[in-house]
Design goal:
Distance between the termini: 17 Å
Radius of gyration: 18 Å
Number of helices: 3
Structural class: alpha/beta
Strand order of the largest sheet: 1-2-3-4
Largest sheet: 4 strands, mixed
Helix content: 25-40%
Number of strands: 4
Strand content: 5-15%
Length: 114
């Protein structure tokens, strides 16, 4: 994150693979309060902590129960000698827009606190 913020071509937004990583980025940004520019942060998972960061984390809620059920079926199938190829699964997620995202012209947070 430090390297990104110091680059000449700083991104206006960052998508994190999971909420835990995004929370870490928010903590780092909190240390850098004096920055004139702060990127929007988005992640995936919708863990409970995402609601309690400040700014609250914008995240994509994933259907964890469906994912777990599919993983179990796949594991059981493979244990029985079923298919061994790569499996792709597409599920719908739900975008939960919160305060960690803003329009690029408004990309300065006045308060950081986790």
């Amino acid at each position: 994150m430090e390297k990104l913020l110091k680059s000449e071509d700083c991104p206006t937004g960052i998508y994190c693979a999971n909420d835990i990583t995004a929370v870490g980025i928010l903590k780092y940004l909190r240390k850098c309060r004096n920055l004139y520019f702060t990127p929007s942060i988005i992640a995936s998972d919708d863990i409970e902590e995402a609601q309690f960061t400040k700014p609250m984390l914008t995240t994509v809620g994933l259907p964890k129960e469906e994912m777990g059920r599919f993983a179990l079926y796949l594991l059981l199938d493979r244990m029985k000698g079923g298919h061994s190829g790569v499996v792709r699964m597409e599920l719908s997620g739900k975008l939960l827009v919160r305060n960690s995202c803003s329009h690029v012209s408004e990309s300065f947070w006045s308060d950081y606190c986790i």
